[in-house]
Specification:
Dna Ligase, domain 1; about 25% strand; 9-stranded mixed beta sheet; Protocatechuate 4,5-dioxygenase, Chain B; about 500 residues; about 35% helix; alpha+beta; 22 strands; disordered N terminus; elongated; Glycoprotein, Type 4 Pilin
């Protein structure tokens, strides 16, 4: 009996260890696309980064488009993008590559475990992966799609060099540990509709997070004519600069544009557009003929480009159509409740409006405040939060009498959809007109929306003094106290009057 138990224990230990090993993706292209030895690889990437001239990008980097050839060919071009994100605190990096060898439709994700290079181990963001799986057949888990595929792997050493990591002593282990995780994706053949479905699922999973980076892994022209490479790449990059993912898709199908990771770029540009981003900058463009000096026709030539999509404060969280839907829900909700005392029965299929986001609804009558109630942290889909806050602003704001049905026609409705709260250590981080602020000490708290500063003309000190005294019931200067917590947020603000 003892031996039988011992055997079972050994079996389970072996099985567990085998599963652990099976979930570790070892490098396949070290020594081919990039150096295998740690010091040689690290030194090479450092030299690429040092050779990038000073550059700037307006806003936070949300997405990089980066080449994936051997480092001797495309490494310097890739460094233009990676230098811009050096020491940035991303928590999740979504790497969208292409499938060079396996044929499938849709997007394959690596489900769990980690990827390894000589620079260290990077864990897969398993929670993020789970959040996009099981919702559409075009997005699925298939670890085998990453076998013999270099498009994701070659991006990892650059990420390891520029993003923060913890040393072995800090972790208590024997290898570097990265405080960020990856979501490895390879895209196969896709219809435009499938690309758009994939993009919507990732957009929904990203939501309002500002700690996510998307990396698109693609080369451009492939052919035997360096002059043709310039012409084709110029056409392809023009579509990319415009973030015209639909135009890019059809141009790839027609052969007018070339990019081996073209459908990955279509998906990623769609994600960025859906999240309200409009700014893409081409940082560098070259090709293998220029890099090697083999400029004669007949030499195999591949195009490389490094691009960045910037997120700026003020980028809209919602489209015009989504804003119009929310304003309509707010008005109809107030009308039904004032008439019947019942909440408006409403159902919305829009993925964004189904995200849990905080929102405030403000009512103004003849330009004077008539009610304002909101929820800082969304506990239900956004469209339901707006419905409920609209009703509360109309009848439950303690500063005003309940709105009457006859007054509704004279009321203008404004909705503020909020970003997640960010704790700040001092008031220096607060930018008037840009940030709303929550102040909290003990059980007392108060909030001002970003538009309050513009409407009152207060200085920052007046803004915070009034926030503490009027809204939180604290001493006016409580915001200076180390025991008082300050949180900032931004808002996408829209109203019936302005729209």
């Amino acid at each position: 009996m003892f031996y039988k138990i011992a055997f079972l224990i050994q079996f389970f230990i072996f099985s567990f260890c085998f599963d652990c090993l099976a979930s570790v993706k070892e490098p396949e292209f070290a020594g081919q696309f990039y150096p295998a030895p740690k010091e040689e690889l690290s030194t090479l990437i450092d030299s690429f980064l040092e050779n990038v001239p000073p550059q700037s990008a307006s806003g936070e980097i949300f997405m990089l488009i980066s080449p994936h050839a051997g480092y001797g060919y495309s490494g310097q071009s890739a460094a233009f993008g990676y230098k811009l994100i050096k020491n940035k605190n991303y928590k999740t990096v979504i790497i969208i590559g292409t499938s060079h060898h396996q044929a499938f439709n849709g997007a394959a994700l690596y489900g769990q475990g980690s990827f390894v290079t000589s620079l260290g181990t990077i864990n897969v963001d398993e929670e993020f992966v789970k959040s996009v799986l099981g919702k559409d057949p075009g997005v699925f888990q298939d670890d085998s799609a990453f076998s013999s595929e270099h498009s994701v792997e070659v991006q990892l050493p650059f990420l390891q060099k520029v993003l923060p990591n913890f040393s072995a002593t800090e972790r208590g282990g024997s290898a570097n540990y990265y405080g960020w995780k990856i979501v490895p994706v390879v895209v196969g053949d896709c219809s435009l509709k499938t690309c758009e479905k994939i993009a919507l699922l990732f957009k929904e999973a990203i939501g309002q997070r500002k700690d996510i980076l998307v990396v698109v892994s693609t080369d451009l022209y492939h052919g035997y004519d360096p002059q043709e490479a310039d012409i084709v790449d110029e056409f392809t990059l023009d579509l990319i600069k415009k973030m015209d993912y639909q135009g890019l898709y059809y141009a790839l199908r027609d052969g007018k544009a070339q990019a081996c990771g073209g459908f990955a770029a279509v998906v990623a540009l769609n994600i960025a557009k859906e999240l309200g981003m409009q700014r893409l900058k081409v940082l560098n463009h070259t090709n293998s003929a220029i890099v090697t000096g083999k400029l004669a026709k007949g030499n195999w030539t591949v195009g490389y480009a490094s691009c960045a999509v910037m997120r700026q404060e003020g980028d809209n969280m919602l489209t015009t159509q989504q804003k119009q839907k929310l304003l309509k829900i707010a008005r109809e909700s107030i009308g039904m409740y004032l008439e019947s005392g019942k909440k408006l029965p409403v159902n919305e299929s829009d993925l964004v409006l189904n995200q849990k986001m905080g929102a405030f609804v403000t009512l103004k009558q003849h330009n004077d405040l008539r009610g304002c109630i909101g929820n800082l942290i969304g506990s239900q889909p956004l469209y339901l939060t707006v419905r409920d806050m609209a009703i509360e602003a109309a009848v439950d704001d303690p500063r005003f009498q309940a709105l009457s049905l006859s007054e509704l026609k004279d009321v203008q409705i404004e909705v503020s959809v909020l970003s997640p709260l960010e704790k700040v250590l001092s008031a220096e981080k607060i930018e008037l007109g840009k940030h709303g602020v929550l102040v909290r000490r003990g059980n007392q708290s108060g909030v001002f929306l970003p538009q309050v500063a513009a409407e009152t003309g207060w200085s920052k000190e007046e803004f915070l003094n009034n926030l503490c005294s009027q809204k939180a019931g604290l001493p006016a200067n409580a915001w200076k106290d180390k025991d008082t917590q300050l949180y900032i947020f931004t808002a996408d603000i829209f109203s019936e009057k302005k729209m």
